[in-house]
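Give me structure tokens for this 374-residue protein.
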Amino acid sequence: MNQVILWIMAAGVVLGGIDRIFGSPKGYGKKFEEGFFFLGPMALSMAGMICLAPVLAKTLGRLIIPAFGLLGVDPAMFGGLLAIDMGGYQLACSLAQNPLMGQYAGIVIAAVFGCTVVFTIPVGMGIVEKEDKPLFAQGIMIGLMVMPVSLVAGGLVCGLSLLEIVHQNLPVLVFSLLLLLGLKKAPAAMIKGFAIFASGIQILITIGLVIAAVTSLTGLVIIPGMAPLEDALAVVASIGIVMLGSLPMAELLTRLLKQPLLWLGKKCGMNSISVAGFLVGIVSAIPAITMLKHMDKRGKVVNVAFLVSAASMLAAHLGFTVSEASGMLPALLAAKLSGAFAAIPAALLFTKGTGAKASAGKTLENSSTAGETA
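Here you go.
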């Protein structure tokens, strides 16, 4: 399966490259270019934490390993609290006592739960309109409620037993429950807390990047044990190579699925912008979140619930997994797809009776990533 996906990505590279040669008349060349445009933002959000991961694992391990050991849980699970591409994978693998658990926590959990905690919630709450914040919180809660589907599916594909999955995910499930209660009882305080947490992570990443860059330029070792900046940038570059193909292929998929999803949206009582959100969200969460203001109420909740598992599935997360742990690609896709497909009916059920409303003339055609036909 891995080779099939890699060949599909390679086909995307060819599709985007050929279109770019002819001036990008179909738009695939623009997506090809975006694969490299992502390198700068990815390096800023990833490199510092990748460099710090060995040091953090050694420092935090003194506390995490004994604490998790009391529960019989692999300390790698702690790494899953960070996003897959923000140091979660490296931290999980560094803390892991069982290499398989390091892969599972660093890829599956970090791509679903870690991404939600560190990225989707704080960034989303900073983007959405004030009146949409309750709907955003509701969508997050629904996504977290069905998240066990994602974690179980990914774990089973990894080769873990159901009992192992439930046992090892105890800290994640407890943390999720506390998060659900917090969003329900004190959403404003929770959102403020997540914003502070996200800012702290960003500061830590920047400090790591600065120290690694100084060491690279001068040879002065400021913090012993840090990974070289060149190694971190090699990871970022390898993700960029995958995204050269994944973004054009995601664009093609968006166009092929446009009409079926429009039909589905009409059947489910959602407007065309809401349907477009699904297609955009599997590439990047931020543009999908910015589209919320044009969606009907039901579409807002369903899209946010969908993002908990599906965010960046065909872009950064796929690229990172192919680059760092290609054998985990089936587990990543199983986790994200199962969680996303479980979130949609769950959110539709919770929003039953909330119909679609007109969205100021907006349509799928002018808000999706696809501007032309395939």
